[in-house]
Automatic annotation (TrEMBL), chain A:
<feature type="transmembrane region" description="Helical">
    <location>
        <begin position="171"/>
        <end position="190"/>
    </location>
</feature>
<keyword id="KW-1003">Cell membrane</keyword>
<dbReference type="InterPro" id="IPR000515">
    <property type="entry name" value="MetI-like"/>
</dbReference>
<feature type="transmembrane region" description="Helical">
    <location>
        <begin position="229"/>
        <end position="251"/>
    </location>
</feature>
<dbReference type="InterPro" id="IPR051789">
    <property type="entry name" value="Bact_Polyamine_Transport"/>
</dbReference>
<keyword id="KW-0813">Transport</keyword>
<feature type="transmembrane region" description="Helical">
    <location>
        <begin position="65"/>
        <end position="85"/>
    </location>
</feature>
<keyword id="KW-0997">Cell inner membrane</keyword>
<dbReference type="Pfam" id="PF00528">
    <property type="entry name" value="BPD_transp_1"/>
</dbReference>
UniProtKB/TrEMBL annotation, chain B:
<dbReference type="GO" id="GO:0005886">
    <property type="term" value="C:plasma membrane"/>
</dbReference>
<feature type="transmembrane region" description="Helical">
    <location>
        <begin position="156"/>
        <end position="179"/>
    </location>
</feature>
<keyword id="KW-0812">Transmembrane</keyword>
<keyword id="KW-0813">Transport</keyword>
<feature type="transmembrane region" description="Helical">
    <location>
        <begin position="101"/>
        <end position="120"/>
    </location>
</feature>
<feature type="transmembrane region" description="Helical">
    <location>
        <begin position="12"/>
        <end position="34"/>
    </location>
</feature>
<feature type="domain" description="ABC transmembrane type-1">
    <location>
        <begin position="70"/>
        <end position="278"/>
    </location>
</feature>
<dbReference type="InterPro" id="IPR035906">
    <property type="entry name" value="MetI-like_sf"/>
</dbReference>
<keyword id="KW-1003">Cell membrane</keyword>
Amino acid sequence: MMRIFKVLLVALVFVYLYAPIVVLVVNSFNKSKYGYKWSGFSWKWYEKLLANDTLLTAFTHSATIALLAATAAALIGTLMALAIYRYRFRFKRAASSALFVVMMSPDIVLAITFLVLFVALGMQLGFWTLLLAHITFCLPFVVITVYAQLKGFDTHLIEAAQDLGASEWHTFRTILLPLLLPSVLAGWLLSFTLSLDDVIISSFVTGPDYDVLPIRVFSMVKVGVSPEVNVLATLLLAISVISLIIFSLLVRRKVT
Amino acid sequence: MSRPDFGQVLSFRQLVITLTLGWLTLMVIAPHALVIMTSFMTPDTEHLAVWPLSLESYSKVLQPIYFDVFFHSLWLSAVATLVCLLIGYPFAYILAKQPPWLRAVLLVLMMVPFWTNSLIRTYAIKLILGKKGLINSLLVSTGIIEQPITMLYTEFAVIVGLVYVLLPFMVLPLIASFEKLSADLSEASKDLGANAAQRFIHIVLPLTAPGIIAGCLIVFLPAMGMFYVADLLGGAKNLLLGNVIKNQFLVVRDWPFGSAFSITLIVMMAAMLWLYVLANRFVQRRGGLDDENL
């Protein structure tokens, strides 16, 4: 009896999590626009998406930001994790608190702090503001991923290198970085997904010159049904599943 | 320890430290300070916020119209958090009891939807709950109901959407605390004659309390900000705090008021984090667990 209940609960949760996604994927191949009924298989929405220039531009912009932000966050975050792990310095506690605040703050709060900063600095909202904001909200996730690996690190390796005369930079580049690579890459992938998924912060820090996916999608789905969004969802799902597989492979390699 | 090239040691070290402190000061500390400052300034149509300093925006937060919105938003987020907990707690318990390989598979399956765009997933909920959506057409075609039920643009829809987007955030910390829960404690109390309910109330519940609070925080705080969920599923009446803040910043352009609203949210968040730290300490003292997190 208890067992049936357990299986039922798990099954129901998965139905809840997957039903909306199945609806999107199935409807992306559905001939009918409204998708309340299956009216035959068709690629027509895929063709329509490929012809939709504004949506494709927005997608390219979002992907560019995600790639650049994830790369920058992975680099800067790794250095920050190193600073917090290896060095003693003034305001170190303040630095880790600031990272914690970024991780815990609701997106809406971060979004307005970024907006107020950019406006106060007189920056034009667009590519650069978007990039800076995305790097910043991804940073803590890289730091904790890399820091977790640093904590389990054999410090003898670092000491040995330095006894042999390696400089701090040399030790980092030839010993720490190669060994930290799995967690740096895991942090990169996490940042990439977070950046691509962000709706709230992007809506605040981008301007009309640099249209990004969530804003375009938002305006398309707010009024009604839009089959191109189904196609986009299916493609994004495929990207996410592939990244998830790579991510889990990386994490598994780190553990063993 | 020999350090032949001292100058270089200093430079790499200094570079890393300067980068860390510089970035966080410019992108995290300064912006927060600016928002605090803005919340005390006077709104201005042209310059957004001007001197003199005043408490006007905070008194506006307390005005009945906004206070109602504030509480309605808190209420929606709180219900969504509670639903997440009620689904997530038994779910995490079941998952934590599975053999490692099965648990890993189930966890990955749970994470796949979480890794796709949440705006698009919210739109999918809209397709399901609509008048001609999946649920209504299933119910009508099977003859269970004759007229479609109104589900979209209600509180119910907002809560379904929030729970859908945030459920994994509840489950993950809960699984972590169930994994730490030692089976010995439960067995010992069983040997001493405790029944299932007693074991749950006196052992399982207090020891998983940090997981419960962490999960609730990670769900409740972002839930208040998710304006797109309320926009797509809630209609005009079911606003979240995020909608008010977004509206003040991007439409009405009363920045001091928008900032004051956000500061209220931050203060609430700080109070809740403090509660979390206290609860964690309490459990550590009583349960003797070695919790290294945070």
